[in-house]
Design brief:
The protein is built from 18 helices and no strands. It starts with 7 loop residues before the first helix and ends with a helix.
Length: about 325
Amino acid sequence: MVFGWRASRLASERIAEALAEIRAVGRHDPLHAADGAVRFLVKLSPALEQVDSSSGALGGAARAAVDSLVPVIAQAPAAGAMREKWLERLFEAIQNDDPPYLELLDEHWGDLCATPEVASRWADRLMDLVRQVHAARRRGQHAFTRAESACYSALFAAGRHDELIALIGGDPRPMWHDLLWVGRCTVARGEIDEAIEFMTKAVNAWTPMTGLARFAEGVLLQAGRRVEAYEKYALEANRATTYLATFRLLSKKYPEIDADRLLSDLIATTPGEEGKWFATAKTLKRFDLAMQLAWKSPCDPKTLIRAARQRRKRQRCLRSRARSFALDLPGQGLAR
């Protein structure tokens, strides 16, 4: 794949085509599909290094590719030697990842190892380097390694939770995504509330509340505590690109929640800006509510004009159908 500076859309389309092809192969040959997925990820960053990614769309496509291909590789029935070859190639790609299009791949390292034994071997291989980096940070030096997240993920997959917590504890300035591993270990022990409390205390000015909400919602759903997950965290954790997409995402995840209640709850999250939900209410055919929202707070004039035109067109169609129906009634033609 080679693209010019203004070809992020084309690059994103090629990524989507590659993913579709890998998925198609995976239906009848999962081993071949996994090998193709590894080759694709290894070549991804070098192929995109000259493409303008300022819009963020290309980064989103790359993250989606990683999320989509990790299960393909992890679940493939590969022999030990082949999987080790895959892991070596992917690990080298992570180290050379610039720009960082594979930045989430190392967090899935335990899944890519496929077995606790392989994950444990990789953890042993990486722990000394991570400890050296933490020691340098404690001395006030700037130190960094791309092996850090991979090591944490491998320790977690190997079930070595105490060692993982102790290793992160040696870092004087752990990042939010590092502390998430401590939260996951706590959840694995069955301590759901303690895990949420720990992650809540870890929130700071640089941590988006969405991260906490997604973690808490996920563990509560996993524990079967759906009502609590919805009432406390779902509205913050599920923000899509548009208001209508947000509503549809939540309605799909929580089908037990009445649509009117869900829409009312979402509107309440934007006090003073209720008009932003006008288009959503109109699309859902809550016309009275849409009118109330339009009067309650400012609404995009373009949205209002478009809605008025659609409503006028709909009314014309209804009147036309009514006239046609009246003319078709027995005796109406003679009366006319």
